[in-house]
Design a protein that fits this description.
alpha+beta, Beta-lactamase, 5-stranded antiparallel sheet, 3-stranded antiparallel sheet, 13 helices, binds glutamine
Length: 304
């Protein structure tokens, strides 16, 4: 398949729509300043063929896409016990909602909403994880380039993260968070503030379309079964309260972030990342979704 032409066409088709719909996330002050009229798309196939178009090499804040990497590390370091503290059901609620935590006794619905990722961060700390280096080392190795945290974004989130503080404290009140709220949130904000571009993310998520094998070395990052489970969670929970709509329109496991990035994985075939900062009311990139829908329709790569 000529992926490069497909991405070029999608990019040309969507460029005139830049700036017409959506708005950048403004609840994190450092993200509110991002220029919304940007669009980039990149993919890497299971065999290492690559294609990209638009602003695919412009770095952005990966935000909730980092929840895929923290889950990967937790599956490796914590194993099955992880699921004693986190469920695996779609929430049908916004990513930062507290509501279900009360009736569900501090067990977050899934690892891809904020409450779930905070619980994953807590599990990682308890497992002896090295908070300052481990995720950066993993993603740098996965995309074969050095990756850094944007300290300004992390500080900006920490200064305004009242909801996340409430969520972590609420989970702790049920006895389901073992470490200090501040320590857990520090780790969580660092992972969200990782800066990567679409091409690096397409490469770094390659293990999810290769049965868990590292995109360059071929060594297992996680097992085949664990990779399948992450893809299943991305399809059912990766785009917050729009997961049903994503499955309906696109039919590819996806994980979005409020920086405007969306990663998508077609198992056994390719990993893809699209980025455009303007978000819809569910906090998913407007043009990112459109691009994925065009891609799925033109390539026939919906998993259904
Ligand atoms: N959905 C997201 O990308 C949210 C992540 C963001 N860091 C937050 O905690 O609010």
């Amino acid at each position: 398949m000529d992926y490069q032409s497909t991405l070029d066409e999608i990019c040309a088709e969507l460029k005139p729509k830049l700036g017409m719909e959506g708005a950048v996330a403004n609840y994190i002050p450092a993200l509110a300043r991002i220029e919304p009229c940007q669009f980039g798309i990149a993919l890497r196939t299971r065999n290492g063929e690559e294609a990209w178009a638009g602003d695919a090499t412009t770095p952005f804040s990966i935000q909730s896409i980092s929840k895929v990497f923290s889950l990967t590390l937790a599956m490796r370091l914590v194993g099955e016990q992880l699921w004693e503290r986190i469920d695996r059901e779609p929430s049908g609620n916004p990513f930062n909602s507290l509501m279900q935590l009360e009736s569900e006794q501090g067990i977050p619905r899934n690892p891809f909403i904020n409450a779930g990722a905070i619980a994953v961060a807590d599990r990682l700390i308890s497992s002896g994880y090295a908070p300052k280096t481990e995720m950066l080392d993993m993603v740098s190795s996965l995309c074969d380039e050095p990756i850094e945290v944007d300290r300004e974004v992390a500080a900006s989130e920490a200064a305004t993260g009242f909801r996340n503080e409430a969520m972590a404290s609420f989970i702790k009140s049920f006895g389901k968070l073992d470490n200090d709220v501040a320590t857990v949130l520090d780790l969580y904000y660092r992972q969200c503030a990782i800066r990567m571009n679409a091409l690096q993310l397409a490469r770094a998520t390659g293990y999810l379309c290769r049965d868990g094998a590292h995109p360059y070395s071929g060594i297992q990052v996680i097992s085949d079964r664990q990779a399948r489970r992450i893809n299943a969670l991305m399809l059912t929970c990766g785009t917050y309260d729009a997961a049903g709509e994503f499955a309906f329109r696109i039919g590819i496991p996806c994980k979005s972030g409020v920086g405007g990035g969306i990663i998508a994985v077609v198992p056994d075939t390719l990993s893809l990342c699209v980025w455009s900062p303007a978000l819809d009311e569910n906090h998913n990139s407007v043009l990112g979704q459109e691009a994925l829908e065009l891609f799925a329709n033109r390539t026939g790569l919906s998993i259904f």
